[in-house]
Every structure is written in C-alpha cells, then in structure tokens.
C-alpha cells in the first residue's frame, strides 16, 4: 500500500490552499472588483495620472446598464474606425485565448471614460457643447475652458444604437474616445470606477 509521508501531505495541503486562493482572487477580480492605476490624461482634471482606483465590477456581473455621468472602464476596440456608429471588436477564438485575455487580462487594453449618452439617445456635438435629444448636457466636471473638438472625431451627430453607450473623456481635446472609434456595446463594459484610494487626501467615492 502506497504511503504518503507527513511532509508530502503538508506540501499537497499548501498547493491546495494556493490553488484555492488563486481561484478566489480571480473570481473576485472578475466578478466583484479590482484595483487599477490611471495611466493616461484623458479624464483630467477628474482623474490624474498615477492615481489609484478601485473598480466595481458588479455592474458587469449583473448586466446593468450604466447611468449617464458614470465613469466606466471598457475593453478597447480592435479598430479606430467605427462600423457605422458602432465600435469594432474582434472576438478571441479558443477557450485558452479567451481565458488569458478576458479573465487573466493578458495583453488586454482598457479605457476609462465617462458615460455621456445611453441607448436610443440622439447626440450632437457642436461648438464644444454636447446635446442629448436636442437639450444641452450640463457638464460641471469639465474645466472652464473652450473645448475644441479634436481632428480625429468621427461621430458628432448620430443616434446611439440599442445595446450601446457613448462615452468620452473629460479632457475632451486630447481624449481618444467614442467620437473616434464608435459607440461601445454594453457587454464590453468592464467596470464602474468606485473609489479613489491614492493619494490619501483624495480618498473617497469618485
């Protein structure tokens, strides 16, 4: 009869605990929330480079449509050129590629932007102002400067398709966002920005 020594049992128990911890960490990261670092300036002045955030991923888990004004993260489109008004995505093939990309997020790029328009809403961007269904959108979070439309903007007068949202960065002149690559499918939204925990003097809900 094969006998397992106490040392071997302890090693197997440690391996078992480590595997469980990794699985739980991945589940929490994918379904509940995860920390992140702001790497770009597209959300300035609301968010600045190197600030640390906690992302709430429960909205993705429960398939909730975000509200206007929410700051979200979403998977970066595969192309900068929209398909009509819709962003273009190339789906990964094979379970291993899907697991490493969507769960482990190896090689995955995401954007942080603010939700501006919801499914079915008509959007017009004119003279630095945003109009939703013909009414000017109040945007107190923007700096008190003239907002110039970047030359790369493709979408300035359109209707958001059902199942999609339109998002832009607060740093409008320098933000690469839905104006360039098109509206984002709701299922590509990864999380909602919840808490800023660094720097400590700005700790709190975003």
Textual characterization of the structure:
- By secondary structure, the protein is of the alpha+beta class.
- The protein has 2 domains: 1-31; 34-205, Umud Fragment, subunit A (Ribbon).
- Helices cover 21% and strands 27% of the residues.
- The chain contains 4 helices and 12 strands; from the N terminus they run αββαβαββββββαβββ.
- The strands form 2 sheets. Strands 1, 2, 3, 4, 9, 10, 11 and 12 form an 8-stranded antiparallel β-sheet that branches.
- A hairpin with a 2-residue loop joins β5 (122-126) and β6.
Layout: helices, strands, pairs:
Layout: H1 6-31, E1 33-37, E2 52-56, H2 58-61, E3 71-75, H3 95-103, E4 110-117, E5 122-126, E6 129-132, E7 135-136, E8 157-159, E9 164-168, H4 178-181, E10 184-185, E11 189-198, E12 204-205
Antiparallel strand pairs: 1-2, 2-11, 3-4, 3-11, 4-9, 5-6, 5-8, 6-7, 9-10, 11-12
* Mean pLDDT level: 91
**Count of discrete alpha- or pi-helical segments spanning 4 or more residues:** 4
- Going by helix content, strand content and strand pairing, the class is alpha+beta
Seen as an oligomer or otherwise, the chain set is: single chain
Instruction: Identify the CATH architecture of the largest domain.
Output: Ribbon
- Write out the CATH superfamily name of the largest domain: Umud Fragment, subunit A
Question: What Rg, in angstroms, do the CA atoms define?
Answer: 21 Å
Strand content: 25-35%
Q: Provide the number of structural domains.
A: 2
Shape: elongated
Question: Into which percent range does the helicity of residues fall?
Answer: 10-25%
Q: Quick one: how many beta strands?
A: 12
N-to-C order of helices and strands: HEEHEHEEEEEEHEEE
CATH class of the largest domain: Mainly Beta
Biggest sheet descriptor: 8 strands, antiparallel
């Amino acid at each position: 009869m094969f006998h397992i020594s106490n040392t071997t049992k302890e090693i197997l128990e440690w391996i078992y605990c480590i595997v469980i911890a990794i699985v739980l960490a991945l589940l929490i990261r994918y379904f509940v929330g995860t920390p992140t670092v702001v790497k770009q300036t597209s959300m300035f002045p609301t968010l600045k480079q190197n600030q640390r955030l906690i992302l709430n991923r429960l909205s993705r888990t429960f398939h909730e449509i975000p509200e206007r004004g929410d700051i979200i993260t979403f998977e970066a489109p595969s192309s900068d050129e929209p398909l009509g008004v819709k962003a273009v995505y190339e789906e990964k093939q094979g379970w291993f590629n899907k697991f490493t990309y969507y769960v482990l997020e190896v090689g995955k790029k995401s954007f942080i932007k603010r939700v501006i328009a919801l499914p079915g809403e008509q959007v017009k961007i004119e003279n630095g102002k945003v109009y939703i269904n013909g009414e000017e959108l109040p945007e107190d979070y923007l700096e008190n400067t003239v907002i110039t439309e970047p030359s790369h903007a493709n979408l300035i007068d359109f209707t958001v398709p059902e199942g999609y949202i339109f998002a832009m960065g607060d740093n409008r002149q320098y933000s690469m966002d839905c104006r360039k690559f098109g509206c984002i499918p709701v299922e590509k939204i990864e999380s909602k920005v919840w808490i800023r925990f660094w720097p400590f003097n700005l700790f709190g809900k975003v």
